[in-house]
Structure formats: structure tokens, C-alpha cells
Amino acid sequence: MTSLRTNSHALLRIKTTNLYAEAVGAEGITPSEMAELAPELKRVHQALTEKTKGGLDAEFACLNLHAGMPEMLPQIEDMAAQIRRFHEVAVIGIGGSSLGAKAVHQALTAVTTSNSKPTLHFLENIDPYHLEAVLLRQRPETVAAIAISKSGGTVETAVQYLILRDWLEKNLGKDKAQQQQWLVTDPAQGWLRELARRDGIPALPVPPRVGGRYSVLTAVGLLPLAVAGIDIRGLLAGAADNAARCASDDPRQNPALEMAALFYLLDVRKNKRTSIMMPYVDPLQLFVDWYCQLWAESLGKRMEARPGHPPAGTLPVRAMGAVDQHSQLQMYLESRLDKIFTFMALDEWEYDLPIPLPEADKKFFPYLAGKHMNDVIEAEFQATRQVITDTGHPNLTLHLPALDAHTVGQMIDLYQRTTVYAGLLYGINPLDQPAVEKGKKLAIQLLSGGASSH
Ligand code: PA5
Predict the structure, then answer these.
(1) For a pocket test of ligand 1, which of 124, 126, 154 has the largest count of ligand atoms closer than 8 A to its C-beta?
(2) Among 107, 167, 369, 382, which one is most buried in terms of CB atoms within 10 A?
(3) What is the pTM of this model?
(4) Which residue from 269, 263, 239, 240 is spatially nearest to 251, judged by alpha carbons?
(5) pLDDT, tens digit (0-9, with 9 covering 90-100), for 334-377
(6) Among 53, 176, 309, 440, which one carries the catalytic annotation?
């Protein structure tokens, strides 16, 4: 393998041209539609600016993490150093308390240089087989547990933590077991905070105004990522650089505002109902999951302020290049024009592999002569984007300068910011998730024997 580059601090290249009518015809947005929205864009930018005033106490504190979290980094790094003494680390959390760390971990593990990192096990879903197979067969003295819950009492997290804690205590005794547990939770309330007080388990706070799906750049994501040896300072630096490039109320100068405006207009003016994210970079598979939660839980809402208006939001859908060319592409090309695509492509790969093509095999693949693996993925990406564009599907491309912490930090801030702008354009609250609570309450009633499941 040939290493092609060192880490860069270049900005993402965000190609929005294929979201406009000039590239995709009637299904795209016209300059006059964008111009008509200009006063609204000024209004939402002004609202976002007001609601981000006040650092980590602001309503939109999630957009200030690049500036507010550096102060907490020494604490996070000290705790991570203690946890790194263990070989196996259970990261227990769900939804926003898991997806961000999982996504960044997957994206950056391939390029992390640290050689003494423990193995991270993300315990997200309730799954006895997984917990048993992955952790309860390890030697207990090698296992550390980080329980992460903003509310401090989410049932999936509580159940897995209770089982793991019990297993540690039974095998090691209560005192020793407690030295292998760490918490990330609300600074004042909830079950986990109570454990921190009662049993002296070390606990880092989640800023109270930062909700789960916006919290990857708090201790929720930064602690497990630091344990894995990932450059968390680089992540925050990338987020800061993205925040700086999104300071204007002019969408031509502010990519998050432009993306929010285009996705909003494509929904309300062009009936786009589905937003498909399709990276041509394998380690970004879980980033798509993180995006799906952020987009769906933030924007999929009734528009109370606009009675009679269809609900907000486009359904986020996962895809992967080149795999889904052999699975979903047929439908993309010949079904309804109700979709928006986001492609992700890497400008420079960490490694490249030449394709060995013996003379005897050349007649089958003459086009591969002298090519590298990355030439193939690049050609497939270009070709797929071209046919999607020719079909009339609006599409966006994020060109990543490199797969490093700085780039991923930019992507996190870009999507959090775009989502908040989009929520403001729809006139909904992008930070809450009222409908999700209904199911949670009913599950608790069922467990309490207070409601029937039929
Ligand atoms: O984004 C959200 O708010 C949710 O996905 C939460 O993160 C998830 O429900 C877990 O909540 P908690 O961190 O309180 O355990």
C-alpha cells in the first residue's frame, strides 16, 4: 500500500450546482426561487445568530461546541487516559448518545495512528446475544464501561449498564468494579447523576441545552473517541472552521444556509420526499446513520404553525456507493422523481492499491490496465452522479479533502447547522422530538403491566 498524503486542514468542497434547475431541469431550483426566499433566509440566519448567543447556555448551544468544549478537553483527556488502561471498553448509549461516536470512530479508525488503543464495543440496541458474545466472555478485569445518557435513565442504556455492572461486581467485588466504570450525563439530574454522587463514579457533564443527536462534540462523543485515540482537538478545529465559513446571511457565502434553503425548497416546491445519502467512502457508512437520525428526528414534524400544510421534512435514506449501484440504482433511475441525493467522495485516499493485471487477463478488462483501485471507485462515482443528474434528480456532492478529524468535524458542524436552519425555515423546533416520547412512555407502561400490548 502506498500512503498518499498527510492530514490536511483544507475545507470541504460543497458542490450544490446539481440542485439547481440549470443542471437538472424542472426538478431543480431556479435562481428566482432562491431570490424569493432571500428575506426568509435573512430572517432564519438572524434567528440562529440570536439563539446561539450565550455560549453553552444558548438555546442553540449545539452550534457553539467548537468554542465551548475546548475548556473541557483536559478533563475529557484525563478521563480517557484512565480508561485506556483497559483492553475492552463498553460504550453504552443509544440514539444521540451513541450514533455520533460510532460514526466518527468508524470514519477515523482507519487513519488513527495510536498503536495502544483499546477495543471499543458500542452497546446500543437491546440484544442479549451481542452483550453475551462480545463482553461477558472477556476477562472482567480487562473491561471498562462508559455509560452515556443525557437524561440518565433511558431504558435500553440502563438495562445494559445494570447487567454489565452486576457482572463486574460479581466477578471483581463492588469496590474494584466501581473503578472500571465511567459516566457521561446531565450535570444535575437523572439516575446516572445519582450514581455519580452516591457511588463516586467519575462522571462528565453534558451541557444541559445540547440534545442527544447534536451532542457528538460534547463528552458524549469526545470521551469514547479520545479513548480510541482519535484526534478530538482536530474534530473541534474542523467544526470551528465550518462555523466560521457559515457566518453570512447570504447563501452564496454560507454553505449550511444554502443547503438548508435548497433542501427546503425541493421539499415544499418540488415534492421531493426522500433524501438519499450515498457516500463513495466505506468508512462513512455510519456517518449516514448519524445524519439519518439528525435529519429525521429534527425535521420530521407536524407544522403546527401552518395548519393545513403537509408535515415538514424529507425522509433520510441510507445508501452506499458502489454497492447500491447493484441494488437500488434501478429504482433511482426509473421510479418517481421524488428524491434528492447527497454523494460523498474523497479527494485523496490514504492508501491506494494498483490493480495487478497479468497479460493473460487483459483482454477481459482492458480498461483496468495501469489503473489503481481508487480510479475505479472515482469512475463509478462520476458515472452514477452523471446518470442521476441526467435523469433529473437534484443532487449535492461533498468532496472531502481527506478522511481526517478536521474534515469530519466540518461535516458534523455543517449538518447540525443545516438541520437547524432547515427547521427554522419549516417553522418547527429542530431540537425537540415530541412524538418519540409517546412510544417511550407506552413501553414503560407495558413493562409496568399497566397497558396491554394488543
Ligand atoms: O437525539 C435524541 O435526543 C435521542 O436520540 C437521545 O439521544 C436518545 O433517546 C438517548 O437519550 P439519552 O441520552 O437521554 O439516554
Answers:
(1) 154
(2) 107
(3) 0.95
(4) 263
(5) 999 999 999 999 998 878 899 999 999 999 999 999 999 999 99
(6) 440
